[in-house]
């Protein structure tokens, strides 16, 4: 855990020193990506039932998304946010320590797009699949959260097969990486991973994922747990 804390501090110090540089790199990466796949993402998102919630914020933690969804969010920010607001966002993304939290006795990384003062999502129109899926009515008639309600009546039951089929095209058009040797490539990572992937490099983003994001998120830790401990990987030489 000390290595994780040291890396968190290095990321924060790097942001304090090079914030404007990282803002430019993050925005440039999504601008260069262009509009490829954006229509696909919007169309698939629109096929999910529309819901409302009480904005309690319990579910507003960092979730794993596809690279297409990351670029969709970043392009929305570029089009609608003022420069100083974007600077504050980048500072928040890199200040991981301030967003560490505990929810239902599990470790979490709070979502950087949750405004705790207004209790609102800052990117609600382009929120990713995990946020849209959370609380939908399941086949067994249950929801993950009692504060979520369908806007249409009667409420639409959403099956697991439907959700899988809906997202099947996203991996074809999104990046994939192998976090741990011989564990296979995956297409979905936390928003923070994608940000560091484009601001630093894939290698550094994977190191941050393994040494910081996985340990401070109980769901991510559980996802990678096996009967054996996670592979020991030597820290990279960070020169941020």
Mind sketching the topology for me?
Layout (H helix, E strand, L loop, with lengths): L1 H32 L4 H8 L5 E2 L11 E3 H14 L2 H12 L5 E4 L2 E4 L4 E2 L4 E2 L7 H5 L15 E2 L9 H8 L20 E3 H9 L2 H12 L4 H7 L16
Antiparallel strand pairs: 1-7, 2-8, 3-4, 5-6
Helix pairs in contact: 1-3, 1-4, 1-7, 7-8
Describe this structure in words.
The protein is mainly alpha-helical. It has one domain (2-216). Helices cover 45% and strands 9% of the residues. It has 9 helices and 8 strands. The strands form 4 sheets. A two-stranded antiparallel sheet has the order 1-7. α1 runs antiparallel to α4 (83-94) and α1 (2-33) crosses α7. The radius of gyration is 18 Å and the shape is globular. The chain starts with a helix and ends in a 16-residue tail after the last helix. The model is unreliable at 227-240 (pLDDT under 50).
Would you report the number of β strands? 8
Helix content: 40-55%
Q: Termini distance?
A: 21 Å
Residue-averaged pLDDT: 91
- In the sheet with the most strands, the strands line up as 1-7
Summed up, the helix count is: 9
The major beta sheet can be summarized as: 2 strands, antiparallel
Task: Decide which structural class fits the backbone.
Answer: mainly alpha
Q: Please tell me how large the radius of gyration is.
A: 18 Å
Q: How many domains make up the coordinates?
A: 1
Q: Approximately what portion of the residues adopt beta-strand conformation?
A: 5-15%
Q: Identify low-pLDDT runs.
A: 227-240
Order of helices and strands: HHEEHHEEEEHEHEHHH
């Amino acid at each position: 855990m000390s290595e994780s804390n040291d890396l968190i501090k290095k990321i924060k110090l790097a942001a304090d020193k090079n914030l404007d540089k990282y803002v430019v790199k993050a925005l440039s990466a999504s601008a260069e990506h262009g509009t490829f796949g954006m229509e696909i993402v919007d169309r698939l998102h629109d096929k999910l039932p529309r819901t409302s919630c009480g904005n309690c914020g319990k579910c507003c933690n960092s979730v794993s998304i596809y690279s297409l969804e990351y670029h969709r969010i970043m392009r929305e920010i570029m089009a609608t946010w003022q420069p100083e607001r974007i600077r504050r966002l980048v500072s928040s993304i890199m200040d991981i320590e301030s967003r560490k939290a505990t929810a239902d006795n599990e470790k979490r990384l709070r979502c950087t797009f949750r405004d705790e003062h207004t209790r609102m999502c800052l990117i609600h129109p382009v929120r990713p699949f995990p946020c849209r899926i959370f609380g939908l009515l399941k086949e067994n008639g249950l929801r993950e959260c009692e504060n979520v309600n369908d806007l249409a009546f009667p409420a639409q039951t959403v099956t697991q097969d439907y959700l899988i089929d809906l997202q099947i095209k996203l991996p074809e058009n999104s990046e994939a990486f192998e976090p741990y040797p011989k564990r296979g490539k995956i297409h979905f990572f936390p928003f923070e991973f994608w940000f560091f992937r484009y601001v630093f490099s894939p290698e550094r983003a994977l190191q941050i994922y393994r040494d910081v994001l996985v340990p401070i998120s109980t769901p991510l830790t559980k996802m990678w747990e096996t009967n054996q401990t996670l592979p020991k990987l030597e820290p990279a030489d960070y020169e941020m």
